[in-house]
Design goal:
This protein is α/β, with parallel strands linked by helices. It is built from 4 helices and 6 strands. The protein has a single domain, classed as Nucleotidyltransferase, domain 5, CATH 3.30.420. The chain has a 6-stranded mixed β-sheet with strand order 3-2-1-4-5-6, with helices on both faces. Strand 1 and strand 2 form a beta hairpin.
């Protein structure tokens, strides 16, 4: 199933946000890492990037519990949801949550294979999240717009 919209994925952490993009709808690419400062500054940077890249949908990694159920989330997932909902107040594009389980582990394996630096791990994790979204059959995800 090819997705013909420009996508951006976020791997939101306490200190950094990994960013990945896909123009083709087939392949995710690490884009950059945003070092978090204040919500206001972070949101402005993300909004500017979304506009510059003409992003049409935002994909956000959400750490589900080991049960894998979207409604069964912990404190970190609740923080990510609050952050995303605050960001989305000023966006005109839809966003969706994707289970990010094991995305960092997969990113570390990719990092070891490609020799990318440690800082890029967050962007690689975002690319794993986005690639999982692109690869999912039917995209059974939680839409929020």
């Amino acid at each position: 199933m090819a997705i013909d919209v420009r996508l951006m994925a976020l791997d939101i952490g306490e200190r950094r946000i990994g960013i990945a993009t896909s123009d083709s709808g087939l392949l995710a690419q690490p884009h950059s890492v945003l070092h978090r400062t204040t919500k206001k500054k972070d949101f402005a940077k993300l909004q500017r990037l979304i506009a510059e890249l003409r992003i049409e949908r935002l994909i956000v990694g959400l750490p589900y519990s080991l049960s894998g159920q979207p409604e069964d989330i912990g404190p970190q997932a609740r923080r990510i949801k609050r952050y995303t909902e605050a960001l989305a107040e000023n966006l005109t594009i839809p966003y969706e949550y994707v289970d990010e389980s094991y995305s960092t582990v997969d990113a570390e394996l990719l990092q070891a294979a490609t020799g990318r630096n440690k800082t890029a791990i967050d962007a690689l994790a975002a690319a794993v999240i986005l690639q999982n979204y692109l690869d999912s059959a039917g995209n059974n995800l939680t839409s929020n717009r």
